[in-house]
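Sequence in, structure out.
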Amino acid sequence: MAYKVVQKIRGKYYLYEVTEAEWDPKKKNSKQKRRYIGPCDENGTIDDSRRKAAPAASAPAEQKLYWSKNIGQYGLLTGLASRSGLDADLAAAFGGETAKDILALAVMRIAQPGSLRGMEDSIESTYLRELLDIKKGYSSQRMTEIIRAIGEDIDAKKRYCAKAVKDSKAVIFDTTALFSSSKLYEMLEYGRKYKKTGLPQVNMGYVHCMDSGIPVYYKLYPGSITDVVTLVNLIKEMKAMGSSAEHTVLDRGFYSAGNIRAMYSEGYRFTMPLPSGNDLFKSLITDAIDELDNPENMFRFDGRTEFCVDLEIKMPFKDITDAAGNAVEKIRALVFQNNDRRKDEIDTLAARIDSVEADAAMTKWSKEKESELFRGRNAELKNFFDVSKAEDGKIALKGKRNAISFAMRNTGRMILLTTSEAPAAEILGTYHLRDSVEKDFETLKDDMEGGIEYVRDTVSAEGMIFVQFIATGLRVRMMDIVRKNPSLKRLGVPAVLRSLNLMTVSNVNGTVLMSEVTKKQREIFEQFGVDLPSVKQKPQQSSV
């Protein structure tokens, strides 16, 4: 029996007619099909003043606009997912319907990032369900069911990642800690960063393929698991899934005897920067400094001039053996210098020192004020000064010449330790690729961290994180196209999406029409290699 319901959305009321209801014996709830009638007041009385009239020139006066939905950016993102094979890979791993749900939620995380609790209202304002041919709506209850189903299907997630890692020749490994105050997420444990954050953490290992340019695998570990264990487990799991990766690019945080021993013993070649505060860094700069301005060591890279001194040095750690058990006694060290960057970094350092000295001269001395002066970004500057109380009661700073000279000596210089035999310029290019990847990784980390704050259990956290993992992969594909296309690069990803906001689909008295596509919007779709989206003439009803 049909009946009418009033729903409040963003402070306004809308009237729907429930046309069907059938009982689901497994989930023990009813599924509804609703037909939108129009805007109303809280009592269900239709408010015609809130309807948008159809243009008089193009439609008879009696025609009425029942809804208007955004299609532009959703058509682009779903088209890109289809073109790249992402939708097919998800379908092969999870099955068609679940794959559509994962892709829909991933697209929403890019286009309208926000709480999953508000997803129902957000997604119904778009043409996304129609583009993906999703019959069911996204009520809060169904959203919970979807996220839990994704989290529980460990085999499907592994099938998806196994295909992604299979052809990865070179990868970027990274690890991070996600923090949460949720008491319901069992994997949270107190880790090594507890003193800084005061929160328990879950560790995440992350793998990015340098051949395809997309994230291919991740794994969560309890917060107490160390980076060395995480790295070894990631390598072994990649191999078990059929990865043919031979080389990995790491950041300076991985520089340790345990990690280097693990890389060699597992047969992985690697490239990683040497931390600038390390004694070996100081020694190698001293060894190379006379040759860093030698024109014979000069080459052009990315529009700038680089100098590189190529050294073979003694392995800095003891008892390092390769996969065959042979002792590793030497390693290659590339000492780079960029004079443009060196000048910029010296200017920045001088400005920061000058700013701290100016602040000190105006601040009345106390232990608390001294701590505030060197808090946050300025913490590293504390080693550059002897601090005391001046005669006028302000904070007095006396620069430490040797400490400042050493900091200036390191500017514009970087040392890469590598097992690769490739030319220095090629290795530098490979390392620079991780810069853009690191930004994507930080975005992924921020989104994940915010999401697990409110999860109800580990299964839900796993499901939500996988959705965000897929969203990051789709966003990285989009960013790669933007970077390679000059006209798109001038716009940037946010502006590209905004340009498509005015592309809409409207249902006028049962007829579905798409707004006129501008030349700029058409060009964006062409540059992404994606066809313009098409619309269905029969409006789609949602089943909650």
